[in-house]
Amino acid sequence: MEKRHIKLTVNGKERELLVKPNDLLLNVLRNDLELMGTKYGCGIGECGACTVLLNGKAVLSCIVLAITVDGQSITTVEGLGNYADLHPLQSSFIKHGAIQCGFCTSGMLLTGEALLKENPNPKEEEIREYLRGNLCRCTGYAAIVKAIQAVAKEA
Description:
The chain has helices at residues 25-32, 88-95, 105-118, 124-130, 142-154, and strands spanning 4-10, 13-19, 51-54, 57-60, 73-75. It is of the alpha+beta class. It has 2 domains: 4-77, Roll (Ubiquitin-like (UB roll)), CATH 3.10.20; 88-154, DNA polymerase, domain 1 (Orthogonal Bundle), CATH 1.10.150. The chain has a 5-stranded mixed β-sheet with strand order 2-1-5-3-4, with helices on both faces.
């Protein structure tokens, strides 16, 4: 299968890649760009572990073909913050105990970021609705919702 050239911005850096027409964005991020924060969960768009921001909107990278994001902007959890300068959501997740096993965390953080960009002051029900595509088997969501609410209140 012939590879095709794409250009995209990933976490603020312009990148040029050769991808096969059937390469999934998830696999390109993890395998080609070594951005391991984007998790492989279900592979069918059901769990949200692979969530990234595509032009600021939350998308499931396991069901997006890499070739379709040519010319667009992607943010992964690595693009939110770093150890020296955590994003407010990352700090809030830590403060509120919204992280247990950590597998869903990157998807939750990016979904939370997309929500807060869209609605800077969401009600609890709106947060829960927005998170509906992100599965967590550890926390029961209460701490995650509180962490997102805390960032909304600080903004």
